[in-house]
Amino acid sequence: xxxxxxxxxRNDPEIAKNITYWHSIPAKPAEYRPFPxxxxxxxxxxxxKKGINQLYTHQALAFELVNQGxxxxxxxxxxxxKTLCYNLPVLNHLLSNPESxxxxxxxxxxxxxxxxxELMEWGKELGECIRxxxxxxxxxxxxxxxxxxxGNIVVxxxxxxxxxxxxHHTKWMRLFxxxxxxxxxxxxxxxxxFGSHVANVIRRLLRICQFYGSHPLxxxxxxxxxxxxxxxxxxxxxxxxxxxxNGAPQGPKDVIIYNPPVINQSLGIRKSALLETQRLAxxxxxxxxxxxxFTRGRVELEVLVSYLRRAFQRLGDLTEKIRGYxxxxxPQQRRAIERELREGKVLGVVSTNALELGVxxxxxxxxxxxxxxxxxxxxxxxxxRAGRKHELAAAVLVGNSSPLNQYIVNHPDFIxxxxxxxxxxxxxxxxxxLSHLKCAAFELPFKVGELxxxxxxxxxxxxxxxxxxxxLVEGRYYWMSEDYPAADISLRSASTDNFAIIDTTDGxxxxxxxxxRFSAPMLIHEGAIYMHEGRQYHVDKLDWExxxxxxxxxxxxxxxxxxxxVNLRVLSVTETQPQTHxxxxxxxxxxxxxxxxxxxxxxxxxxxxxxxxxxxxxxxxHTTAFWFAQQFTVEPAVPTEVIQNALSGVAHxxxxxxxxxxxxxxxxxxxxxxxxxxxxxxPTIYVYExxxxxxxxxxxxxxxxxxxxxxxxxxxxxxxxxEGCPSCVGPQIEMGYTAKKxxxxxxxxxxxxxxxxxx
Length: 759
What we know:
The chain has 27 helices and 34 strands. The chain is an alpha/beta fold and 759 residues long. It has four domains: 2-22 and 251-416, Rossmann fold (3-Layer(aba) Sandwich), CATH 3.40.50; 32-243, Rossmann fold, CATH 3.40.50.300; 430-488; 498-758, no CATH class. The strands form eight sheets. The protein has a seven-stranded mixed β-sheet, sandwiched between helices. A seven-stranded parallel β-sheet has the order 6-7-5-8-9-4-10, sandwiched between helices. Strands 29, 30, 31, 32, 33 and 34 form a six-stranded antiparallel β-sheet that branches. Helix 10 runs parallel beside helix 19, helix 22 crosses helix 25 and helix 22 (640-657) crosses helix 27.
């Protein structure tokens, strides 16, 4: 029983001493409303057949608002019944308007498949001809024609909409002429570069809808996010009503944060988070508590499955009840695991974030999370996977040695005492906008003076004419090329100049992904370990001219980290706040970067176990950055190298704490520390966006600058090492023995002067 396991965790001194936080969330009763008057009686009868005799308050409100013709976004926790918020109005309308259409957008295939199965069940039970189809890369050619002509509900993903539907809209006339609803689920996943692209895909979608005379409503759903209304509006271009009063019941839940013990005090090395995750998960599974373990990478997932099965080798039947789940599994295998979870045949499942979203996996009682998942929204999504039947549940977060994790485990109020982060997108990023203007012109010619969303794009269209991409004829801009622009544009990159990554394992030559030119020297140089969907690939050859990297799958216990020599030049200052000793600014910068060597870093211990040279051309990128410059008072005898190491340590802290506020990954940002910046003539730290043009992170960093610096200082102070380590300022062997001391001084001075300026 779960109560026994929780008692063991409390009373075992070897475990209890490493628990930094334990909070019991009380149960919350449901809040109900009767079925709305406009709900078709056939749907009411089916709901009652399923044991649903009234709706949660947010479900009823969502239905009423949509019936009033309002665009909405529903923001409630996992397992709160968000699916009914969009399925009820859609099915209700289809019953009375069988020719109408709905387009469902989901970020993952697993989630799409789950929803299709539920919708098909609804159609079967209602006895009506409500035809639901999935349209993605796995859809056969024979099925595509039927879907285009007969599908009442088409379930797809943004990538397929971008490249497989919109460019061929003439084949989808029945859909676009009758499109009544656009459903966007898991709205919080559309952020950063991906979200900025999707916002432009939606602009193209609405433009085509207007051409065919339809005016669909948006029904969006999301996990907790700080700015649901603003984010929905920027994504859809519509004023959206927020439905965020959750009426669903919640069972009691214990949330525990566990920090593995330090095994080397001076270097700050902790016991493996992976082994501690396995140990804690095994306690729940041994007690027959249905458990899900979340981890971020495929390697960690497979290792955890192996460890857990090994722990129960003497109990053969229990070993068979432990499964892994990730994106790389075959679709039929994933469906089988999902079914076994719902049926209670699987007792323990180890998953990447593939099961974080709303896939129906039945009732679990315990969640063990191997490492902070990156955002508060993701954390609560994962925590919410347990306790779906209102019984006592538990969630345990096991921190690892990264600075971000160490901040969380030592400041648990950060995730427990505040809301989620803001989702940031910039649909008007020049590089992204131009890419989608090309796609839109291919789909339909632009008229002179026509807006794209709410943007006046005349100047951009004229530029594309100068580039001989478009031609202007009698007040219309026409696509000139025979090329198919959407095929060359990835929704995961701001650049169109990308490198193809080719898997040559077992003699095959399969493209598994792509990466922008600026990032290529860092991630796919020869000798690099490239990670894709959790798999490890060794880069055997990089053909720079043809923009192809040839890789093969490997299993190694290290990752690679390229040393980057970055020269940053300020082009313009958008906003600045000068003070007596500290000046904070943000604006446009030119980043010139050259890689010269790479290190092999062992997992978990961060040991440097080897290196290799890199010989590739310098890359330039126009982007945005936040920077702060300050006078730094140190003894005259302190060498410049020591100050440089201190500034690099502060930069390392900022790079790893910024994602706490920005809902981004550390890899989305870069840092440059200069003892005497040519622009400010002072010690300066620059934080730049690793995407051409930026997507809004620099501006947000500027707005919350003192919060970020305070987070960095708190992390530094909470780290138990004496002179610096990978969990705070960086490895001691690289940063020296005084980096932590002077990094502390630098931050203390910045915060002192910053607080004076604020006052």
